Amino acid sequence: MVTDSTDNKLRSHSSVSVQVLVSMCRDMDGFTCKGDIVDNIVMKYSVFVSIELLIFLCFISRGLQNKIIFSINGSIIERDLLNDVVSTLVSNLQSNIYSLDYDYKTGYVFFPRHNKNDILRFRYPSETAYSTKFVAAAREPIALVIDPLLNHVYWTEIYQQKIYRCDFDGTNKISILQDDQLYAITLDYVNSWLYYSTKTNKIRRYRLTSGEKQTVKESVDVTGLGIDAYKNRLYWMEYQRGDLESSELNGTNSIKVVSTNKTRTNIGIYVYGSKIYCSNGNQILKVTVSPITMAEVIHTDTAGINSVLFYYDMSAVEIVDHNYTS
After folding, report:
1. What is the DSSP string of 88-99?
2. Are 105 and 324 in contact (CB under 8 A)?
3. Which residues of the chain have pLDDT under 50?
4. How far apart, in whole angstroms, are the C-alpha atoms of residue 251 and residue 248?
5. What is the pLDDT at residue 64?
6. For the whole prediction, is pTM greater than 0.90?
7. Are 143 and 161 in contact (CB under 8 A)?
8. Contact in structure between 233 and 247 (CB atoms under 8 Å)
9. Cα angle at 216 between 212 and 217, to 5 degrees?
């Protein structure tokens, strides 16, 4: 936990997105940034990124409004983890929402509408009423992931058996690959691997820089994927067994992290350092994997929850990106 004595400020002018900087600097009690870690991030990412960011981080000890954002019955809802207030952000979406992702740089939540054949976004947080913006047309999209370094959105179209990509504003839409029926998706920013699951019970990865394709895991029915970039671990939700599982990024050293004790109801997961947030039927679980593994219910609702996103309060971060306009 960040203490009252924490008042150091870190300035880093680099080509690293906020998501990557935060995920690579987390620890079990919050996160701290060390010079050698930041230098390592900058070294790894500079070859991939053309955007210029000015990131001003000021770690504060009080007032962080960390929240869980999730989808249920065609609505997107938030729960404030500080005061437990639950609020509806967007309603009447006329579709199941199976995936959510957030870009801290532009301040947008992105999501697919499976039943309405499109990708939408809305600005978050907002002092005015939340309203969605159209991003791109899609054929029954299931899951998406954003690339905050290059301002890209990737999504799976299960019955078209394709992964598509477009820019944050919907331009430059292209087909990335075709495979079996596709479901979950996540992105390894460091090594430029796009991970996805198929309904033939496989996890595969696709190298964006070369087009190389590899099978990482077999005999797993996966509905949620995520990566801990700092620990180089891949996490997934096994739908049939209801188990949260993990491996090295190449699929080796697999372990069962925890059993949710529910089967065929778990869909979305969101990895935030050593914490994994899981939709678990009508509940949201927070699974902490370090230093010891433990699971706790942090929200219970009246209907099934399809996707979940952890929002970290970045009110102390000032970001300038001269190469992106919304």
Report:
1. EEE----S----
2. yes
3. 1-18, 20-44, 46-63, 316, 320, 322
4. 5
5. 59
6. no
7. no
8. yes
9. 150
